[in-house]
Predict the structure.
Amino acid sequence: MKSQYLLDVLATVEKRNPGEPEFIQAVTEVLESLEPLIEARPDLVEAGVLERLVEPERQIIFRVPWVDDNGKVQVNRGYRIQFNSAIGPYKGGIRLHPSVYIGIIKFLGFEQIFKNSLTTLPMGGAKGGSDFDPKGKSDGEVMRFCQSFITELFRHIGADCDVPAGDIGTGGREIGYMFGQYKRLVNEFTGVLTGKGLSFGGSLARTEATGFGLCYFTEEMLKANGKSFKDQTVVISGSGNVATYANQKATALGAKVVAMSDSNGYIYDPNGVDLAAIKQIKEVDRKRIKEYLITHPTAEYHEGHGIWSVPCDIALPCATQNDIGKADAELLVKNGCYCVAEGANMPSTPEAIEVFLANNMLYGPAKAANAGGVATSGLEMSQNSIRYGWSFEEVDQKLHSIMKSIFASCDEAARTYGMEGNYMAGANIAGFLKVAEAMKAQGCC
Ligand code: NDP
Ligand code: 2IT
């Protein structure tokens, strides 16, 4: 980054947010991509758009006390960062994982601004979460935690104000408990959360949306470069919501998924990972991926973080941030991988991205490639507003066309600013421009 102006903006962010490396990482990537745009648009600099964009509009931190099954009081910390509302109500998921601290929620909220802008739908950026670990907790404990979390958060959210949803550790079960508590406190049945159950305002295809959307985006990127999923070998990290439905769609498009993982290790099945078995282990039994060997004894299980050593054509990181480091990226290249598309948020380190770009790999950045989840949340909001539900095919078709349009915007923005084929720069510029124009038009606020 050469622009003194951008360096100054970054220096302020570093000073204001000490000890938050993930947030600094996310901001640095965006500012670097905006360099050519900033030269061409002095009006946006004049309007102070960047200085305002990197500072959250509101940050909420709160105590979440709940009683465990032994009658003991437990205390977690809850967060909601309402980052930017220039183009719509705050929107973004809730992450429940022991690693959660403010820097994680801030990076996710920041990314969400641009992602939501790319979807073409009117949604601002937010993120929330807690250091609560749902793993190993009973349904009753999870329910009491969720009720306590909403007992504070309810006053800060609303269907036209801020609409949370799922993320790591927050799925249909947790959203159900949160929705029930919100309805009870506010005495209103509104679309305040997305990812709801189908019997109380949820949208068909929301469960599948992030994974399906990732494959639709990847398909467009492959097509634009004369390739397709057909007969390609795919490796997917993670085995949660995003990974599962990415596997399903990639397989439907003709690929073979040979490896998946969880935080303990990865399975390698050269015959193609049996998705029904993964769904049973992860969605029903809530167990470790290692259990796959019980029903598939010819597959391999490896403890630890080695999934990127499995040779593949296409890599879909769908677990967590900074999952692919420089050495992993080099290994992927060495083994013939030519395409990385991100289902998780910020799964590749800056050094890994350098390796992808230096080797002319097709690289689909998270804020574009995984936007199908929040896009379908936007469609859930629309259905709630009109008090109507579309069929699975209708939602899926809308999701597909949104993902096509996201790829087209990234591609076009990259070309316009002289970075053809760099979809990361394209996503950052296209996502930024819509929000920046809105912020400028609304004056200094
Ligand atoms: P889930 O909780 O359903 O699954 C998460 C998966 O990632 C699990 O397999 C989990 O393994 C693994 N994982 C989580 N944390 C770590 C870690 N620290 N180290 C190694 N593995 C880890 O979450 P989702 O599938 O919903 O989310 C996955 C990613 O996709 C996240 O980055 C999320 O932000 C992003 N995303 C999610 C969207 C959604 O709609 N759900 C939308 C857009 C992006 P284990 O079970 O062992 O913890
Ligand atoms: O990172 C994400 O985009 C999500 N976790 C989904 C957010 C949403 O509001 O559906």
About this structure: The longest helix spans residues 392-416. The chain has two domains: 4-188, 208-364.
